[in-house]
Structure formats: structure tokens, C-alpha cells
Amino acid sequence: MNEFGKIISLENALSYFHDEMTLMFGGFGGIGNPPTLIKGILEKGIKNLTLIGNDAGFPNIGIGQLVTANQAKKMITTHIGSNPNAGRQMTEGTLEVEFNPQGTFIERIRAAGVGLGGVLIDVGIDSVIDVDKQRVTVAQKEYLVETPLTADVAIVYAQKADQFGNLIFDKSARNSNPFVAMAGKITIAEVEEIVPLGELNPEEIIVPGAFVHYIVKTEGVNWKWAWEN
């Protein structure tokens, strides 16, 4: 069940990750982060990552594990408050953090996914996020030009995928994943269940398979261990 060549092993998926790369990830507070791919990156010891995602997760959950292990050099994100390790590293100067208002952040990712050169935003003018940004005036109103966000690899987590990579998400685990899936130069989807073509209801598909390059079957996550550690 791999006629499109998109279903690959975890080992093959990990060959796309390397030091100094830009990695975009889906999820919100750990929910919707792809646990098996993150675990693989953690164990492979890939370092000096630029991470692009909604938040820094928790110290031992989701993307937060990479931050805790000092494998990230920069984060482009909306907040880091749930992971004290990220705050400590930022204060110490070992982690550069670029903050974005949450709506602006998603629009920058969406812009990359649909091929826009940027978006005009009126949030953040003359604030901490207004640093070296171009301004334009449209209809007598001033805007910041926010550039698109893309990445060497984007990783997402879905409930189901077919062989072509059409994706369905489970409730709130959908969060930023559909936008992230569109914005990577290479997109790898970690999924709970892989089904044959034609088995997904077209009305339930959120991400078309055209955006997904590879599919990896998840090994799941031990949430009890994660919370306790």
C-alpha cells in the first residue's frame, strides 16, 4: 500500500533532518505535535535548529523536548511561557526568540503556503515586534509588511491519511497543522492510521495530499510519562 511512494519508514524520514536546518511544526501546547518524528530528531541529536511553531510546548512534551535538550538556536513563535527552559535560554542568550502575534504568525505561514510575497498587518506598529520591518500605506492606513514563513521541512500530525497524503485531523489537534503542511519545502505527515485510496470522505479532508511529500506511521506517545517527567 505505497503506490505513490509517500509512505516511508521513520529511518528514511529522519534522513531529511540535519544540523542548522529550519524546522516548522504543527501543534498547540504539544497537542498536534508529531511525537515520533520529534523523538527521532531528539535521539539523533540534531542541533542548531531554527524552530517555527505556535509555542515552545512543555519541557518534556512535544517540541519542548528539543528546546529542553538545547537543540534549538532560534524560535519563531507566538509564546514560550509554557516552557520555562525556553525562557531561561532566551534570558541567557542561548536561544534567540522572534515573537509574533498569533494571528500574524499564522498568516505568515499561510502566505508561504499559497505563494504570497507577504501580508499587510496593522498589529504591532511601534511595538517590540516592529523592528526593521517595511511599512506601506494603503488607503491612508499604515501597515507592516510581514514576510512569509517557510522551512526546509515541515512536520505535522494527523489522525488519518490515505496513500496520496490526504489528511484528516482529530478535533483540536487540527490547530495549526493544515497551515504548516502547506508551508514546508518538504512536508512529512506523521499519522495514526493509513488507509487505502477512496476510504476517506472527501468532505472531511482538510489537507490535500498535493501538499504532503511523505507519510510516517506514528508510534504514539506515552502521555503519562511525559507529564510525570
Give the CA-based shape: globular
Count of DSSP H/I helices: 7
Here the CATH topology equals: Glutaconate Coenzyme A-transferase
What is the terminal-to-terminal distance?
37 Å
Oligomer: single chain
Strand content: 25-35%
CATH architect. name: 3-Layer(aba) Sandwich
| CATH superfamily grouping | Glutaconate Coenzyme A-transferase
Mean pLDDT: 94
Report on the biggest sheet.
8 strands, mixed
Low-confidence stretches: 223-227
Output the helix-strand order.
Answer: HEHEHEHEHEEEEEHEEH
The structure class reads alpha/beta
Cα-based radius of gyration, to the nearest Å: 18 Å
Helix content: 10-25%
Total individual domains: 1
- Number of E strands: 11
CATH class: Alpha Beta
What does this structure look like?
- The protein is α/β, with parallel strands linked by helices and 229 residues long.
- The protein has one domain (10-118, 150-228): Glutaconate Coenzyme A-transferase.
- Helix content is 24%, strand content 27%.
- It has seven helices and eleven strands.
- The chain has helices at residues 10-14, 35-44, 64-68, 84-92, 102-114, 177-183, 223-228; strands at 22-25, 49-52, 72-77, 96-99, 119-121, 135-138, 141-146, 151-162, 167-168, 184-195, 214-217.
- Strands 1, 2, 3, 4, 8, 9, 10 and 11 form an eight-stranded mixed sheet that branches. Strands 5-7-6 form a three-stranded antiparallel sheet.
- Helix 2 (35-44) links the parallel strand 1 and strand 2 (49-52).
- Helix 5 packs across helix 6.
